[in-house]
Amino acid sequence: MAAFVRELERRGGPALRLEQRAAGGVGCVVWDAALVLAKFLETGAWPLARRHVLELGAGTGAVGIMAATLGANVTVTDLEELQELLLVNIEKNKHLVTGSVRAKVLKWGEDVTEFQPPPDYILMADCIYYEESLEPLLKTLKDLTGPDTRVLCCYEQRTMGKNPEIERKYFELLQVDFELEKIPLDKHDEEYRSEDIHILTIHRKQRNFPS
CB atoms < 10 A from the CB of 144, how many? Predict the structure, then answer.
């Protein structure tokens, strides 16, 4: 299978080198939303040093590995078939990591006991893709979040086919249990930003926890 490397510049040193695959599925390339979220982390708006961070649908691992270079202790998660690519990219960039990073299998909707206690931050880039994955993703988010967990969700707004309907349904379901707030475009990285790529902060509504 053909592999090609994408470099992602960092403000504080050498670029990340991220291997991508020419075949395999949506998880095998670095999507634009992952670049935007990774570069947003570098702005320092969310302090990452020594924070416990979990990335859902990590794909190539770009966002989680960037967080680990900023001092976070990161678990990047995705399906079994993406573990080898995640491990390759962790290995390629381990000399840049100032926190820690490991890869684990997490299938949305399934048991998350091994990922407890809840992380400080959950990172998601372009995870709103397939209609059939919305409810398992929401279950996983609910199971993983504690009252202090903050979720950063970055997604590219797509206007083709069923995408607008899938997005609408996702945010409708999400708002049953979570509060959402959009991060203004002028707070994104100056270069890595786009009008149709949005970053949201998400946290559980407090009524969902015993007082």
Answer: 20
